[in-house]
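lol ok so funny story. i was supposed to be doing the assay writeup but got distracted and ended up predicting the structure for this chain instead. priorities right. anyway since i did it might as well share w the group, maybe its usefull for someone
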Amino acid sequence: MKRSLPLILPLLMCALTVFLNTSAQAERPNVIVIMSDDQGGGDYGFMGNKIIRTPELDKMAKQSGLLTKFYVSPVCAPTRASLMTGRYNYRTRCIDTYVGRAMMDPDEVTIAEVLREANYRTGIYGKWHLGDNYPMRPMDQGFEDSLIHRGGGIGQPSDPIGAEGKYTDPTLIKNGVETPMKGYCTDIYFDAAMDFIEAATQENKSFFTYIATNAPHGPYHDVPEALYQEYLKVDFRPIMINPNLNPGRLKTETDKLARICAMITNIDENVGRLFKKLDQLKIRKNTIVIYLNDNGPNSMRYVGNMRGMKTHIDDGGVRSPLVFHWPNKVKARRTADALCAHIDLMPTILEACGVKAPSKLKIDGRSFLPILTGENSKWPKRKVVLQTHRGNVPQLYHHFALHEEPWKLVHPSGFGKERFEGLPKLELYDLSKDPRQQNDLSDQRPKVFKRLKKSYEDWFADVSSSRPDNYAPPRIIIGTKHEPSTVLTRQDWRHASGRPWGRDSNGFWLVEAPEPAAYKVEIILKGDHPSGVAKITAGEARLSLDIAANKQRGHTTQMHMQSGQFKLSVDIDFDGNRQGPHQVILTRK
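and the output, tada:
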């Protein structure tokens, strides 16, 4: 017996190590992040809205911690880049929402990558909006299970052909493959997420689940019918910014709000279903569930004591409640008014999970976990900057807000244009006394104004120098085993002429091929059109293809493409009228 002891001890030590590691992993919290799209910071019962029904979220808020001064970007893709990386979106190359400027650099390290490396299961369901092609898809950025739509929403030029605008029975992208689905999109995302959660639980694996609904983002033609009919009977004037509309306009606005509210209450019902699943699986106590919205509301409606909506950098356009549910660590109804933002989610989640970020990774955010757990209620004075506008390159002073409690320095020069005219006209507000930003103090408080202006300028210089050629758009890599067929859409092309998504528009894609290869090229058009000729350019390679009248698909040819980086464009001549394609599919032969 003594002679066999040296053989038994290593086995016992190995078994003990496995047991301890398994036990430690089992104690790590699961994480679910739910983010709605274009739901404003006032669209909740617990935030004072008496019209929109959110009973499940109201219940969640009562049982959770709540950050009341949580900031996001004024539009969606920049918020998503910051949430995923803990970094200001200007560091990530994601600077806008379309025409190739919503793509995030694949070198960015996401929270999904860090947690997956720490042996978490990772899944995304709904909206990604940081690049539709390799190597920028969620499945390339740390998510092992992915069920998403393309682009910034269903109903955009990136929709799969034949499923345009379908919130009900949509065609989604499941792990890179177009997959027809049954049901309403929000229900589908939550169903898939709950299946993923149950599978991970059965495997005794911790999980990170990201549920990002495209609701209540428009278009509004396809919403949950029963809820829509219910809301059609509601008087929305108490939450309208301008309730004194003429009867025709009031009817139009009421219909739109009924559709938006139907989508919001549908999300709320799914949150209730999710909590029932967590209870059924007996994992609720050690599962972090976070809820937030990605920007301000998609119409001028109730935002509490603030002003503004989506695209605005007034507080109503960049504020969201942050509900943090973790029964094991965070007491119910714990509220904090510390200045926090989307850049803080990644470091907070990593601290909660006991996972360290890579040592060389520069993260702008900081963990707010201690102020919710009560371990440290002190929160140092800090500055948070939010800036987003249309265009190819960010511009100094254009449409930004800098926050430092209680101050807000802002230049609301307008989201919809690349540049502003004339000299910047910065405004300064004391949000503790003037949350609606009605009393500009820039002349009365010159020292504060000057100091914050310098802080913003330093921030802009810093984020603009994060990497060489800081704002160059990322490139789509074609012809790899990771994505044998590449669907190129107007979402990620570089706009060249016409209205960006208009029928008369044209553009090109920035691509990279690892080696020379032959490709099948299919040109897809939208709507009726005469016959014409398409000129395809891929770097130095060029060829022409006849386009048959009123034919949407089937315009195909074979083309040899060089290796390296180049532009790919398709210019179609319809009897002197020139335009680009709706989509192009490249399949390596």
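The two ends are 66 Å apart (CA to CA). The chain has a mean pLDDT of 94.
back to the writeup now i swear
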